[in-house]
Design a protein that fits this description.
- There is one protein chain.
- With 143 residues, the protein is of the alpha+beta class.
- The longest helix is centred in the middle third of the chain and has 13 residues.
- Strand 3 and strand 4 form a beta hairpin.
- It has a domain of 97 residues: Hotdog Thioesterase (Thiol Ester Dehydrase, Chain A, Roll), CATH 3.10.129.10.
Length: 143
């Protein structure tokens, strides 16, 4: 795995270290349609502008789980999925067409528990204006 830390190792990390950020291209209608098809989430608020407007929105909005997948990806770009012990996300704001999301991750805790070396990360996805879209945590086990 090619990261600033090299192969992730528990001993090489410090509280306050940041993973490389993940910046995704702007959310497009096409991306939402593809995600809806792949995920099986066909809620019309994500693809039907008339439905979205009738629901009180200006336009369609991105699937929350799409944004959450970006949050998970910042971790899986760093460690194998098998190293993840927990991942949680809180949805903080609606993601709209044109939003460009950047996900960050920071080491906030290191601990050893039952012989396992665990690292807790704070995760956040922000748009190009700095608005937080999701916030959460990941717990990973490292060698």
């Amino acid at each position: 795995m090619n990261t600033p830390f090299g192969t992730p190792r528990y001993d090489s990390l410090q509280v306050g270290d940041h993973l490389p950020t993940l910046t995704m291209p702007a959310i497009t209608r096409h991306a939402l349609a593809v995600y809806c098809g792949a995920s099986g989430d066909h809620n019309p608020v994500h693809v039907d502008i008339d439905f979205a407007r009738a629901s009180g929105l200006d336009d369609v909005i991105a699937n929350g789980m799409l944004v959450m997948s970006y949050t998970g990806r910042v971790i899986t770009d760093w460690v194998p999925q098998s190293a993840i012990r927990a991942l949680d996300t809180r949805f903080k704001a609606v993601t709209r067409i044109g939003d460009e999301l950047t996900v960050s991750a920071e080491v906030i805790e290191k601990r050893e528990e039952d012989g396992r070396r665990l690292v807790r990360m704070a995760l956040e996805a922000r748009d190009q204006h700095g608005e937080v879209k999701t916030a959460g945590h990941a717990l990973v086990e490292l060698p």
